[in-house]
Design goal:
By secondary structure, this protein is α/β, with parallel strands linked by helices. The protein folds into 2 domains: about 5-15 and about 85-210, 3-Layer(aba) Sandwich (Rossmann fold), CATH 3.40.50.1000; about 15-80, DNA polymerase, domain 1, CATH 1.10.150. Helix content is about 40%, strand content about 10%. The chain has 9 helices and 6 strands. The protein has helices at about 15-30, 40-45, 50-55, 60-75, 90-95, 110-120, 145-150, 165-175, 205-210, and strands at about 5, 100-105, 130, 160-165, 180, 195. The protein has a 6-stranded parallel β-sheet, sandwiched between helices. Helix 3 packs across helix 4 (about 60-75). It is globular, with a radius of gyration of 17 Å. About 35% of the residues are buried.
């Protein structure tokens, strides 16, 4: 029986793909580094900001990486106008909150989660938020998921994680939780995740279905 539903932010609760790519590209170039390759920009969508800077700049100096990371955290000149939210997000979250405990597990830092709340005003529906700065090992390590599950006082096999990447899928499996792939940009066979949807409004039905299976 499912008792808790956890959500990733980027790619699930927020469509920040275009905004993040533009922001990071401009940040890297202004800092004096070569224009990031398109393939590298695609990779950073599912990793932390710190790891994104490491990948895009190819820097070896930890000091320089962290200095640029701190500048990036300020989000100066971030293209907020490019951020979108899934259709039906408010009614879906409200509906789910009446039946399940809800939480957020993300590769964003805690401050970055505020962007989601700024656009949706849904913070009161989430009982726990686990960001990358609250754990030692980010996804695909299951630490962040297990931390959220513990905070909600439920079991892994009573939990569903809604994610959009291979790292999310791996973290769910390692934690022993169910997984639903939210994939608005690609066909559902992606990652062989089993349960998948391109429509956020389908989540309540799918969550009730996966609860009858083994994680």
């Amino acid at each position: 029986m499912i008792k808790a539903v956890l959500f990733d932010v980027d790619g699930v609760l927020l469509d920040s793909r275009e905004a993040n790519a533009k922001y990071l590209k401009n940040l890297i170039v202004k800092a004096g580094y070569p224009m990031p390759k398109k393939n590298d920009l695609k990779k950073v969508f599912h990793i932390s900001l710190l790891d994104s800077i490491k990948l895009l700049t190819k820097m070896k100096s930890e000091h320089k990486i962290r200095r640029l990371w701190k500048r990036a955290e300020l989000k100066k000149d971030y293209p907020f106008d490019l951020i979108r939210v899934p259709g039906g997000i408010k009614e879906t979250i409200v509906k789910l909150s009446k039946k399940y405990k809800l939480g957020i597990v993300t590769s964003r830092a805690t401050a970055g989660v505020e962007e989601f709340f700024h656009y949706t005003r849904l913070q009161s529906y989430f009982e726990v938020i686990v960001a990358s700065d609250l754990v030692k090992d980010p996804k695909p390590d299951p630490e962040s998921l297990l931390f959220a599950i513990s905070k909600l006082k439920v079991k892994p096999n009573e939990t569903v994680y809604i994610g959009d990447s291979r790292n999310d899928l791996i973290a769910s499996k390692k934690a022993g939780a169910f997984f639903i792939l939210y994939s608005p940009y690609s066909e559902c066979p992606l990652l062989k995740a089993g349960t998948c949807t391109r429509d956020f409004r389908e989540l309540p039905r799918l969550i009730s279905v996966v609860g009858r299976k083994r994680p």
